[in-house]
Sequence to fold (224 residues):
Amino acid sequence: MTFSLIARCPDSGFFGIAAATAVPAVGKLLTHAEGGVGAVATQAKLNPYLGIDGIRLLQYGRSAAEVRDILASGDPRAEHRQFAVLDRQGRTATWTGDDCIPWAGSIEGTNFSAQGNRLTGRDVLEEVVLCYRESEGKPLDERLMEALEAGDSVGGDRMGERSATIYIVGREEYPLWDIRVDAHPDPFTELRRLHDIFQRQLIPEIRGMPTRANPAGEPAEGDA
Fold:
């Protein structure tokens, strides 16, 4: 009961996931990503271990397609699952079980994949992909958010959306962006409001936090 977009920025190498759904906690359970490794979005009859195990397989250097096949073959209820995998080379692979609520499917491309179930139609994902492609050159966070809004504008989840999330990992083990809206009557407006707050108040702080290369965490001149 969700539509989502996973993406890799070819310039920065950052991985991001955006999703919206009618149920709460989409940001906590659907999004799995690790800097320099890849991303997994797990939805429909959600199994969080598809994301957890998928990231582990990507760490071992498995391709997106290999990860998809391993995860699907090892899940006894795979026909009820939907998930998408994006590896460090920008390759994507998706799974949509036969028992996912229609409309259900995906659209894959280099460095991105859009997927959804219980949608008003394929046009939701087509609009998500079109918006994402046309926003090339913008920051990844903005591209993901605009793509979500575009999917909602043509119908989105047939039951309406109540939750939304933006999750982005950079080069560190902690996320750069982690915005979650739960059980809200207008999750996209709230997501936009929180994004603007994060942009002004939190992102400069995160950019100055300790890194593996610089444990002191002192930002370079002009970094904020």
Q: What stands out?
A: The helical segments are 26-29, 48-59, 64-74, 123-134, 140-153, 187-207. Strands lie at 2-8, 15-21, 31-34, 38-44, 81-87, 92-96, 105-109, 112-116, 163-169, 175-181. The first strand starts at residue 2 and ends at 8.
